[in-house]
């Protein structure tokens, strides 16, 4: 699985590893946003496949985070850290040893139960 480490000075969860992606901008679909974010953050051209998981992260300040996960296929490029501190490929059992934000940890548990 491909993960990215947030910059240490990031406002939320700085220095933690996460599944890459980002916010949907006004007028974008979920798939368009994911394609754009992966290009901006990692320099990859991807195709977005089926949604495999969805979680909600309620926030005290600001809007709740609607976290959707899709299977993706890399069409072109090699992952490189353009807007993140680091990027790497990990086996599911080694991800469990990384510092992850709470919602990414829930996603990891869900993916493990799916056998992904």
- As residue ranges, the low-confidence spans are none
Distance between the termini: 9 Å
Provide a count of the helices. Answer: 3
What class, by secondary structure content? Answer: alpha+beta
Shape type = globular
| Helix content bin | 25-40%
- Element-by-element helix/strand order: EEHEEEHH
Spatially, the strands of the biggest sheet line up as: 2-1-5
What do we call the CATH topology? Nucleoside Triphosphate Pyrophosphohydrolase
**Quantity of strands, as a count:** 5
Q: Say what oligomer this is.
A: single chain
Description:
- With 116 residues, the chain is α+β, with helices and mostly antiparallel strands.
- Helix content is 26%, strand content 30%.
- The radius of gyration is 14 Å and the shape is globular.
- The relative contact order is 0.24.
What's a concise summary of this model?
This protein is an alpha+beta fold and 116 residues long. It has helices spanning 30-42, 92-95, 102-114, and strands spanning 2-5, 17-18, 45-57, 65-76, 86-89. It has a single domain (2-114), classed as Nucleoside Triphosphate Pyrophosphohydrolase, CATH 3.90.79.10.
Topology of this structure?
Layout: E1 2-5, E2 17-18, H1 30-42, E3 45-57, E4 65-76, E5 86-89, H2 92-95, H3 102-114
Antiparallel strand pairs: 1-2, 1-5, 3-4
Keywords:
116 residues, alpha+beta, Nucleoside Triphosphate Pyrophosphohydrolase, three-stranded antiparallel beta sheet, 3 helices
């Amino acid at each position: 699985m491909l993960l990215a480490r947030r910059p240490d000075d990031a406002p939320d969860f700085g220095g933690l590893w996460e599944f890459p992606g980002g916010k949907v901008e006004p007028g974008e679909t979920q798939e368009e946003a994911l394609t754009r974010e992966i290009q901006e953050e990692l320099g990859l051209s991807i195709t977005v496949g089926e949604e495999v998981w969805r979680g909600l992260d309620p926030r005290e300040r600001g809007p709740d985070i609607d976290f959707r996960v899709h299977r993706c296929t890399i069409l072109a490029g090699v992952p490189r850290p353009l807007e993140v501190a680091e990027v790497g490929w990990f086996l599911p059992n080694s991800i469990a040893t990384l510092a992850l934000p709470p919602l990414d940890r829930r996603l990891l548990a869900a993916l493990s139960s799916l056998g992904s």
